[in-house]
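User: quick one, sequence for these tokens?
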């Protein structure tokens, strides 16, 4: 009588629970990466942007008399290290320093004996014309509109007999720094009972009034670059490293073209010098892609976290696109001096708005990051070569061990054993004859020492006639 075994549901449940536990462990392990990204982004962005405040922000008081020196010293004493106030002899020298980004604001003390209300209005009109002439070089009528806005926002017409002070700023260098400078000097002008006339000597383009479009261009180029690293490193992992490096350089070429199209024809952030902008965009993107491609050899699935740390968390926050280093703490201010995002943002500003002043230094920053990418690729190539050699040696050793194991466990065919005996006999010469003689001598010795009672048995066993 046959019996039917019932299915063991408990074993099925145990195997299912084991599979679920293994899957859960895998998911939890994979969640470490996005959680670390969350922590890193919070620390970086809030640490850099949460409490912006000036730290030794350079400004100037324009004037050569004792009143200018006393005012500069008074502001320095009250600022407590937030500002670095110096004196500049005349207005033209202050404009030059603003265009070289040595200072970020210049307070022009009105000359003694300046005209009253009519004179203040004339000064305001002059500031409008100055803003308009500056805008003619970069943004057309934008300079005039900003100067007029600054004049109207500072308090309207001057009181009769009161000269009007003037504040010179360069919003193309940093709109937030210009705003901070205006907040510092507006109360000083109010104490003198006169409105503050604001003149922008380096205005941005009309389609980028805050000047932060360059920062968001950096964001777009960065995302296109480090996201491509994941594709080249993951989908192209089976390709030789030299081919992956070529793909990285080709991708950076395309990313640079996309960024240039955004900055020029699409959003009009830049109205001239698109060739130079593309060159810097390509240098920046190539450095990011080569470094990321090389790091993938070592970091594997942690590559995304690594490139985000380098080119998002530390990069965007230190680029100066939102707040210049003078508005940040020492850590991000120090990174600004050599990080590649700062090289791109400051290089683009210099190229577009400041007649190329200081451009070579920013380009060299991008070049050194590209060199770092090439070095990373070289180190990765050596590591992969050694890894391949080690894998080949391990495979050969494993094959030898497997062959030895098979030979020890599988019986040798009889025909092969016969051939091996024949090869052994032939190689030994007369070894077979010697072995037969030795066997005969051994039998004789056994008969000699076996005693008389054994002779008949021995003779019966011996061959030949009896």
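Assistant:
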């Amino acid at each position: 009588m046959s019996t039917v075994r019932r299915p063991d549901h408990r074993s099925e449940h145990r195997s299912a629970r084991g599979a679920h536990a293994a899957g859960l462990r895998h998911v939890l392990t994979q969640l470490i990466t996005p959680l670390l990204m969350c922590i890193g982004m919070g620390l970086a962005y809030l640490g850099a942007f949460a409490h912006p405040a000036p730290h030794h922000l350079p400004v100037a008081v324009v004037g050569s008399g004792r009143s200018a020196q006393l005012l500069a010293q008074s502001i320095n004493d009250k600022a407590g290290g937030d500002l670095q106030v110096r004196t500049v002899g005349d207005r033209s020298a202050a404009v030059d320093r603003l265009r070289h980004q040595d200072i970020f604001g210049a307070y022009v003390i009105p000359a003694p004996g300046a005209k009253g209300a009519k004179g203040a209005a004339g000064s305001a009109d002059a500031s409008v014309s100055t803003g308009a002439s500056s805008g003619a070089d970069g943004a057309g009528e934008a300079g005039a509109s900003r100067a007029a806005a600054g004049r109207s926002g500072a308090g309207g017409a001057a009181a009769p007999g009161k000269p009007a002070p003037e504040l010179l700023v360069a919003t193309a260098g940093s709109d937030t720094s210009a705003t901070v400078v205006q907040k510092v000097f507006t109360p000083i002008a109010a104490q003198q009972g006169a409105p503050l006339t604001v003149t922008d000597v380096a205005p941005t383009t009309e389609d980028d009034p805050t000047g932060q479009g360059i920062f968001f261009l950096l964001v777009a180029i960065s995302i296109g670059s480090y996201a491509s690293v994941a594709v080249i490193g993951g989908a192209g992992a089976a390709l030789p490293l030299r081919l992956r490096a070529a793909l990285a350089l080709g991708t950076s070429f395309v990313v640079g073209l996309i960024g240039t199209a955004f900055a020029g024809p699409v959003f009009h952030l830049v109205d001239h010098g698109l060739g130079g902008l593309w060159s810097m965009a390509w240098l920046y993107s190539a450095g990011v892609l080569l470094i990321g491609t090389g790091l993938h050899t070592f970091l594997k699935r942690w590559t995304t976290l690594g490139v985000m740390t380098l080119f998002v968390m530390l990069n965007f926050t230190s680029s100066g696109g939102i707040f210049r280093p003078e508005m940040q703490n020492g850590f991000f201010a120090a990174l600004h001096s050599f990080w590649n995002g700062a090289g791109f943002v400051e290089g683009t500003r210099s190229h577009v708005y400041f007649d190329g002043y200081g451009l070579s230094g920013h380009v060299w920053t991008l070049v050194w990051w590209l060199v770092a990418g090439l070095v990373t690729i070289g180190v990765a190539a050596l590591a992969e070569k050694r890894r391949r050699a080690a894998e080949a040696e391990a495979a050969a050793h494993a094959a030898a061990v497997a062959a030895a194991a098979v030979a020890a466990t599988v019986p040798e065919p009889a025909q092969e054993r016969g051939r091996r005996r024949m090869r052994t006999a032939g190689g030994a010469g007369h070894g077979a004859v010697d072995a037969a003689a030795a066997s005969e001598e051994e039998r004789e010795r056994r008969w000699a020492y076996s005693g008389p009672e054994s002779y008949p048995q021995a003779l019966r066993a011996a061959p030949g006639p009896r």
